[in-house]
């Protein structure tokens, strides 16, 4: 519109120019009159003729010229209008309410003769909030039939000259109407090509036989080759039907490359190969189990392979017999229903003990911490590691904040013993003041940073060590320089007891230290009734030889009368859910450590006939603590992972926030029901 004004001004100047010329001639004529009257009289008719012609040109030719200009403009607008109508890109003008005011031929072919309909009727994905404001440019992706479209909305603001036109008062609040230009781009082909490229991406995979040596040791020599060939055939046939390339690296390890489009196929059948290998008849009591690690989502093949290595480590760290997929930063788990198999060899324990010794000798200070609301297992493991570090002449502290009731008498023994330094136990603030980049931070009985006593320590030290017997989860500690996570172990105290036997010959464990470590094994095995293996009893025997006394250990687990009553109330109010789950709540009023009481109630419920798993919920410190126990038939760790927790297949837990006990109880039931229906447990 501004350019239109400029054009009108130029036209006015052009029409006035003859008048200016006539004025110049008249002035010249007057000047000539002063010099020569005869010459002036001769020029006078010419001046009058010029003036008359200027007036005639302005009054008569101006309307004709303006008419010609208007006709040209109209013809030009018609050309532009025709070009817009013939534009191959679908184009439309809509108002602020979404009503279609004008469409071109391409848009008409796109939606049919739908003029005057609302754009939100044609494309329900377009909402009122998607209408752009001011100079915004909105892009909306929609699906129309079997095609994918990209809609682009551009706000068109009418100029002020329209205030005197018929448009005034048609918009919101009586103002000018808001018009929007709508462009439609068909991205069906590009999205299809992008999807095809994603589906054709290579997924790198590593497949390990978890217990090859243990299973083959029980197979007759004449059948070893047959069994090995049978396992190879099952694995090869499963991946060959998906067009994968599989290569056997070692007798119990494979590499596989498969297209990404087959990942949903494998996840939908819950990696059937895991069940096929586990149920294979080998003629022995030990069944083969597989661990599968798949990596995808990286920019390079090398990156996918590194993801696969991380995934297989996660699968093995969680006990094996499962598949782990690492897609970029996302990690998903599939399987993991069977128990972790205990390794008869202690080679790994010896290797980890030697690596820990070398690391401790290269540093000056050691900080050891367990999980929040620590138990006897975490404290016993910390005490054992304290003895190992002090034997190597390293200054060592144990980080602990809230001391639970069962730990208070134990910690008091150490504080009142002159053999131990006064600063043996530190809280989080004291530990953060003591830590340096040259300090070793050892995390015991936990592998999730958010559950440790002081998560900040993990970022303040470059040397992190993890010793744990819980299965790893997607939010496990990732910056550890040394990790010894064995889900088959009964307790972290068992792992530490084995390490102490290999870290040095001059380590002398005091009786009070052996008591706590022995108590940690008793706690996590429910007095050697669950999750016990040969190595569990060997570790217990080592601690007994080191001075553990059963009378003193028994005193560690003595409860107050209030705790017994709360535990009895939890058992009394339990309900049987889905015929095999015992679910109840534990009262916290008047109980010093209700989470410990809840865990004991969960163990007690397993003694009820027909109960395969127990779940106890405890409301404590504005959180709902969930303790889950199993007799081995049900993997409660999978259930707790659904709730955001973790643990073992027979002993796990979780924490819920932002809900009441009854809401949490209902949530647990819904989760169990869903997992049973989907066959996950």
Explain this structure to me?
This protein is an alpha/beta fold. It contains 23 helices and 23 strands. It has a 6-stranded mixed β-sheet with strand order 7-8-6-9-10-11. Strands 14-13-12-15-16-17 form a 6-stranded parallel β-sheet. Helix 12 (376-391) runs parallel beside helix 16. The longest helix is centred in the first third of the chain and has 50 residues, at 37-86. The radius of gyration is 41 Å and the shape is elongated. The two termini are 72 Å apart. Residues 160-176 have low confidence and may be disordered.
Number of strands: 23
**Contiguous helical run count:** 23
Radius of gyration: 41 Å
Q: On the 0-100 scale, what is the average pLDDT? A: 81
End-to-end distance: 72 Å
What amount of the residues lies in strands?
A: 15-25%
| Helix/strand class | alpha/beta
Largest pleated sheet: 6 strands, mixed
Give the spatial strand order of the biggest sheet: 7-8-6-9-10-11
Q: What level of helicity do the residues show? A: 40-55%
Question: Which residues sit in consecutive blocks of at least 5 with pLDDT less than 50?
Answer: 160-176
C-alpha geometry:
elongated
Kindly summarize this structure in a few lines.
It is built from 23 helices and 23 strands. The strands form 4 sheets. A 6-stranded mixed β-sheet has the order 7-8-6-9-10-11. Strands 14-13-12-15-16-17 form a 6-stranded parallel β-sheet.
What is the strand and helix layout of this fold?
Layout: H1 2-35, H2 37-86, E1 91-95, E2 100-103, H3 105-111, H4 119-122, E3 137-144, E4 147-156, E5 179-186, H5 188-199, E6 202-209, H6 212-216, H7 221-240, E7 245-250, E8 253-259, H8 263-268, H9 272-278, E9 290-296, H10 301-317, E10 322-327, E11 330-335, H11 347-361, E12 365-369, H12 376-391, E13 395-399, H13 408-415, E14 425-426, H14 428-434, E15 439-444, H15 457-460, E16 463-468, E17 482-485, H16 492-503, H17 511-525, H18 534-545, H19 550-556, H20 561-572, E18 575-577, E19 581-586, H21 594-605, E20 613-620, E21 623-630, H22 636-642, E22 646-647, E23 651-656, H23 661-677
Parallel strand pairs: 9-10, 12-13, 12-15, 13-14, 15-16, 16-17, 19-20
Antiparallel strand pairs: 1-2, 1-5, 3-4, 4-5, 6-8, 6-9, 7-8, 10-11, 18-19, 20-21, 21-23, 22-23
Helix pairs in contact: 1-2, 7-9, 11-16, 12-16, 12-17, 16-17, 16-18, 17-18, 17-19, 20-21
């Amino acid at each position: 519109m501004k350019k239109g004004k400029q054009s009108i001004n130029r036209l006015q100047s052009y029409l006035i120019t003859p008048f200016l010329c006539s004025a110049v001639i008249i002035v010249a004529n007057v000047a000539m009159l002063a010099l020569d009257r005869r010459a002036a009289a001769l020029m006078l008719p010419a001046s009058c003729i010029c003036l008359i012609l200027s007036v005639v040109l302005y009054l008569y030719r101006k309307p004709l010229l303006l008419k010609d200009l208007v006709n040209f403009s109209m013809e030009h607008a018609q050309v532009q209008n025709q070009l817009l109508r013939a534009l191959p890109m679908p184009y439309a003008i809509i108002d602020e309410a979404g009503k279609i005011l004008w469409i071109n031929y391409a848009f008409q072919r796109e939606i049919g003769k739908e003029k005057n309909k609302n754009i939100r009727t044609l494309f329900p994905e377009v909402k009122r909030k998607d209408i752009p404001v001011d100079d915004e440019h909105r892009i909306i992706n929609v699906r129309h039939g079997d095609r994918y479209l990209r809609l682009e909305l551009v706000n068109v603001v009418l100029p002020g000259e329209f205030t005197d036109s018929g448009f005034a008062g048609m918009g919101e609040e009586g103002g000018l109407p808001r018009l929007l230009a709508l462009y439609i781009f068909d991205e069906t082909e590009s999205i299809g090509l992008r999807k095809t490229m994603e589906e054709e991406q290579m997924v790198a995979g590593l497949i390990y036989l978890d217990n090859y040596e243990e299973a083959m040791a029980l197979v007759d020599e004449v059948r070893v080759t047959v069994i090995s060939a049978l396992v190879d055939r099952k694995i090869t046939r499963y991946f060959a039907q998906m067009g994968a390339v599989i290569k056997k690296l070692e007798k119990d390890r494979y590499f596989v490359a498969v297209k990404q489009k087959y990942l949903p196929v494998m996840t939908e059948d819950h990696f059937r190969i895991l069940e096929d290998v586990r149920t294979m008849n080998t003629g022995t009591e030990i069944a083969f189990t597989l661990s599968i690690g798949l990596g995808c989502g990286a920019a390079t093949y090398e990156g996918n392979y590194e993801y696969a290595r991380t995934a297989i480590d996660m699968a093995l760290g969680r006990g094996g017999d499962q598949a782990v997929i690492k897609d970029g930063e996302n990690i998903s788990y599939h399987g993991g229903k069977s128990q972790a198999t205990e390794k008869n060899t202690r080679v790994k324990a010896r290797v980890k003990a030697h690596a820990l010794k070398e690391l401790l000798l290269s540093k000056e200070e050691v900080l050891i911490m367990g999980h929040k609301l620590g138990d006897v297992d975490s404290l016993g493991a910390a005490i054992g590691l304290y003895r190992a570090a002090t034997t190597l002449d390293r200054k060592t502290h144990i980080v602990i904040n809230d001391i639970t009731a069962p730990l208070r008498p134990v910690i008091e023994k150490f504080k009142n013993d002159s053999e131990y330094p006064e600063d043996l136990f530190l809280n989080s603030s004291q530990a953060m003041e003591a830590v340096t980049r040259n300090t070793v931070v050892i995390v015991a009985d936990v592998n999730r940073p958010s559950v440790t006593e002081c998560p900040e320590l993990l970022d303040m030290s470059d040397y992190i060590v993890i010793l744990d017997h819980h299965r790893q989860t997607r939010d496990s500690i990732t910056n550890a320089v040394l990790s010894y996570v064995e889900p088959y172990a009964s307790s972290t105290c068992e792992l530490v007891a084995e390490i102490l036997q290999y870290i040095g010959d001059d380590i002398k464990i005091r009786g009070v230290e052996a008591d706590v470590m022995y108590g940690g094994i008793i706690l996590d095995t429910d007095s050697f009734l669950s999750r016990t293996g040969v190595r569990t009893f060997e570790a217990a025997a080592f601690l007994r030889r080191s001075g553990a006394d059963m009378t003193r250990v028994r005193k560690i687990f003595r409860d107050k009368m209030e705790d017994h009553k709360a535990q009895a109330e939890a058992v009394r109010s339990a309900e049987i859910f889905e015929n095999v789950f015992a679910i109840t709540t534990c009262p916290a009023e008047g109980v010093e450590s209700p989470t410990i009481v809840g865990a004991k109630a969960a163990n007690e419920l397993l003694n009820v006939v027909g109960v395969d798993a127990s779940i106890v919920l405890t409301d404590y410190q504005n959180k709902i603590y969930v303790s889950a126990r199993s007799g081995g038939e049900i993997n409660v760790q999978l259930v707790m992972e659904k709730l955001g927790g973790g643990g073992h297949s027979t002993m796990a837990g979780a924490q819920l926030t932002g809900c009441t006990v009854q809401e949490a109880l209902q949530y647990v039931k819904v989760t169990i029901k869903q997992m049973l229906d989907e066959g996950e447990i």
